Amino acid sequence: MHTQFHTSTHHHFPPQVIPHPPLRRRTLTLSAHHRPIHCRQSCTHVRFRVSNCTKSSSESAVTEVVKAVDEQNTNEQVKRAYPFHEIEPKWQHYWEENKTFRTPDEIDNSRPKFYVLDMFPYPSGAGLHVGHPLGYTATDILARFKRMQGFNVLHPMGWDAFGLPAEQYAIETGTHPKITTLRNITRFTSQLKSIGFSYDWDREISTTEPDYYKWTQWIFLQLLKRGLAYQAEVPVNWCPALGTVLANEEVIDGVSERGGHTVIRKPMRQWMLKITAYADRLLEDLDDLDWPESIKEMQRNWIGRSEGAEMDFVVINGNGQEEEKRITVYTTRPDTIFGATYLVLAPEHPLLSSLLSEAQSKHVEEYRELAFKKSDLERTELQKEKTGVFTGCYAKNPVNGQAVPIWVADYVLGSYGTGAIMAVPAHDTRDFEFAMKYNIPISWVVRPDDGSCGNFERPYSGEGSMINSSCSESGLDINGLPSKEASSRVIQWLEKSGNGKKKVNYKLRDWLFARQRYWGEPIPVIFLDDTGEGVPVSETELPLTLPELDDFTPTGTGEPPLSRAESWVITKDPLSGKPARRETNTMPQWAGSCWYYLRFMDPKNSSALVDKAKEQYWGPVDVYVGGAEHAVLHLLYARFWHKVLYDIGVVSTKEPFKCVINQGIILGEVQYTACKDDEGNLISADSVDELAEYKQERIPEEKVMKSGDLFVLKDNPNIRLIARAHKMSKSRGNVVNPDDVVLEYGADSLRLYEMFMGPLRDSKTWNTSGIEGVHRFLARSWRLVVGSASPTGSYPDGTVAVDEEPSIDQLRSLHRCIDKVTEEIEGTRFNTGISAMMEFINAAYKWGKLPRSIIEAFVLLLSPYAPHMAEELWSRLGHSNSLAYEPFPKADAAYLKESTVVLPVQINGKTRGTIQVEETCTEEEAVRLASLDSKLSKFLDGKSIRKRIYVQGKILNIVIDVPKKAKVAQQ
Fold it and tell me: What's the whole-number average pLDDT of the chain?
């Protein structure tokens, strides 16, 4: 016989609406006849099975189990600092049921708006770690604070769910990426809700939903109409392992950002977006943004605007005769043209193959093959030795007619400028090193104004006055001119002679906008079979949905996986009826994240990307919080798309994000390691020169102690250890799951600890034991308002607040706290705001009674940080509605003034101490306080006061009768 029983220990809500996180299992053993019972700590249900027993023994077992469960729950209740395990699910359920944080669809122009946004996450299978809630908690505090200040708040959440990670996982497991993506979103959502973030979940979006990417495709068509989307044969970053092309920003040190796979350079026909057309505006508009200066500088450097000249060098054959081919170079120093003694072409240069001599052809091709395996960063690294190969061909310097050799070298990039440079070894360090290595002539043409170069033994890259810079045949003479004036003169000569022109150049390259992968937005273009002409899909046919595929592995040839969906690929041009094929590349992951902040303003709109009135009300985003790693990817791309949308009248602002805040990284807990020599003996870290030469062993924290600023072994303090915190990662085993923290300490404690660790923008080291401090603060706040727990761990209903007028001292403590918390939230200095509330609680514990008005104001101050506890306390204080929209307390300046003074106290004319009194303190009160002071009381106890001299706020002099013997002693 198998019987299954369910018991419930919750009385507030039906069990099915209380979302409990996974809990640790505990085993209660009944007897030899009964199977073990697995109880979940603080669980609302106990499920067990009784086997092979009679009815009476079964009933006895049930009674025993219920009793054991009750005892366990009682023990757990007593151990808890406060009942967060009941409070938090209760209020999360309340918020969800009542849609407490739903932002109305209608616009209320009578109230100011506040749009606060997190950089929306990629929902990975690993779920959140404790580093993720750092920024989310900060934005949630701001959102709750602004709601209470009367703002209309938009605080949404969504998912950047297309891209390589889901597809890689799908390939490895055979699971469709749609399935894993939905599963991951469900897990992320559950975790975010368990921490109590006040998102408007009715506005939730995912980039993978056709209703969303319909408008991503629509934006692409607008770019196409305006010539900002085009196809070109370009050298690309091809990743064989991922089977796709990557943007320059997605390649780090020659490997893919995702997965660390080798990336090679390969020419392919690709979709490009002309972000360079907006380079100047992207640069100029940075000045007006409230962004970290470091992020703005990164964007300036990435855009890399420079002014200079393009000039043509005519190719000459072996007989010294000019050919029709011209090599165009770009230089920022046209003043040094007379010093150009050779040209360098990038390995990707389109003319290179046609310039090779027979003798050099093989050497050049071998060199090119090696260069294509290097990343741009590797090729341009200043410290590396410069390499190159002579092409066997020459070109003519336009200003003096000299024949200069043409070389190929990988330190020149095909993606910058024209892919060719004039090398001036006397005035450029890279060119100088190259010329010295390959014995190429060096010609000095710039003399520093201070004459410091002497005999020109090393390159000089600065400005000065020109020397060796004239040619009668060309008619150009710039000798003696300052560098800047010489540059202008050379540009004038180039334009007049038809050999070149003034040119502004950028490091920024057009955005490579195609991926040879399945899991991405289809590009809405078809190609006619007969002509190959590209035809945009009609806007009325959007969304062009992604077809279902069983095999979405990379083809390995560069042909995208979508090419396998023949029935989807083969189509007809709706206008001409001609047979055509769909584009089989998909958009990169960045596409959907470029504009999602706009869709949050109007997520259900089926006829427009965003309603104009709603965009005008909500835009731009007031505060945008996320990692600094997105400085030149997402933030730059989003600004580009926003400016295009501004130009076509979709948005009303030039920039999408008014204020950007980069939260710091939360590192894993400090790990301690000891060094060992070859024989396995421990050696002190301070005696080690190169750590890599020694074996290292992890040391458990309990075996470590601190000695000054260092960490050493407890058993042998002579062995100094290496203490280091690393970024959280599975490989290091230092990932902390927020679910575990919420289970043990509660969501409010997690929120407070992440804010209390240090300034929001700084990187911090996680320390699980550190959370106990803020947990104790919350417990003290709870007991202050509710009262102490009974021996069973239960708390009385209601609060200990009294309906009495607060004292001046209580009002001062409260309003100082209000002033500080308000100021620190507005300045995003959340850690010091928590400190102010801790100081208030310390003061409040000294009061005999707690006036209701004081406690209610404190609960409202606490609510943005610890919303679950605050809601519960607010309810116990007699309020039937959520406090989410209650007015945030305002500090009264009258209570902020320092109204106490330090009053010197003299006894018979000698200063014996001081007391702290109110400015308006009476003489009687001053004497009373003096008699209570431990230092002064020994002079006053048992003495007769003959006279008192009191000047309010200045001094108290007490004259006492002194016995004759004492007078003599004093004399």
Answer: 87
Whole-angstrom Cα distance, residue 63 to residue 5? 11
Q: Where are the alpha helices (DSSP H) in 680-794?
A: 738-745, 747-756, 771-786
What phi-psi label fits residue 6: left (phi over 0), alpha (psi between -120 and 50 degrees) or beta?
beta
Lowest mean pLDDT among 200-204, 217-221, 280-284, 703-707: 703-707
Residue 323: pLDDT above 50? yes
- 808 φ, ψ to 5°? -60, -40
pLDDT of residue 56 exceeding 50: no
How many residues in the chain?
Answer: 971
**For position 37, what pLDDT does the model report?**
30
* Owner of token pair 């009191």: 950
How far, in Å, CA of 579 to CA of 521, rounded? 23
Q: Is the pLDDT of residue 165 over 50?
A: yes
Q: For 363-389, b where at least 16 C-beta lie within 10 A, e where not — what string?
A: ebeebbeebbebbbeebeeeeeebbbb
Q: What is the pLDDT of residue 940?
A: 87
Cα separation, 757 vs 835, in Å, equals 11
The pLDDT of residue 31: 32
Burial of residue 498 (number of CB atoms within 10 Å: 0-12, 13-18, 19+): exposed
Helix, strand, or coil (residue 310): strand
What one-character-per-residue DSSP string does 99-157 give? Answer: TTTPPPSS--TTS-EEEEEE-PPP--TT---TTTHHHHHHHHHHHHHHHHTT-EEE---
Residue 485 has pLDDT above 80, yes or no: yes
- Is there a contact between 360 and 392 (Cβ–Cβ < 8 Å)? yes
Q: Please state the φ and ψ torsions of residue 581, each to the nearest 5 degrees.
A: -130, 145
At a CB cut-off of 8 Å and minimum separation 6, what does 474 contact?
398, 399, 400, 401, 493, 497
All residues at 6 or more sequence positions from 487 whose CB lies less than 8 Å from its CB, including other chains: 308, 309, 333, 334, 335
User: Quick check: bond before 15 cis, omega within 30?
Assistant: no
In this prediction, residue 383 carries a pLDDT of 60
Q: Residue 256: its pLDDT value, please? A: 84
Q: Which amino acid is at 484?
A: K
Helices 852-862 and 867-876, packing angle to 10 deg: 160
Q: Taking residues 380-397, what's their average pLDDT?
A: 84
How far from chain centre, in Å, is Cα 38? 41
**Residue 877's pLDDT is what?**
97
> How far apart, in whole angstroms, are the C-alpha atoms of residue 462 and residue 429?
11
Helices (H), 447-558: 483-497
Structure tokens at 758: 């240090």
Q: Which position has the higher pLDDT, 29 or 167?
A: 167
Among the listed residues 651, 683, 546, 658, the one whose alpha carbon sits nearest the alpha carbon of residue 162: 546
How many C-beta neighbours within 10 Å does residue 539 have?
12
H helix runs in 415-454, sequence order: 429-438
- Cα-only R_g, the chain: 37
**Pairs from 927-933 (Cβ < 8 Å, separation ≥ 24):** 927/956, 927/958, 930/905, 930/956, 930/958, 933/905
Residue 551 and residue 272: Cα distance in Å, rounded?
Answer: 27
Return the DSSP state at 472.
T
How many angstroms separate the CA atoms of 393 and 342, rounded? 11
| pLDDT attached to residue 611 | 97
Please choose, from the candidates 328, 327, 304, the residue with its C-alpha nearest in 3D space to the C-alpha of residue 316: 327
More reliable by pLDDT, 885 or 40: 885
**Residue ranges in 498-633 assigned as alpha helix (H):** 566-569, 590-593, 596-599, 612-618
Range scoring the smallest mean pLDDT among 23-32, 48-57, 465-474, 892-901: 23-32
53-57, 142-146, 491-495, 590-594: the lowest-pLDDT one? 53-57
Phi, psi of 374 (to 5 degrees): -100, 150
Q: Which two tokens stand for residue 402?
A: 């000299």
Say if pTM beats, i.e. exceeds, 0.90.
Answer: no
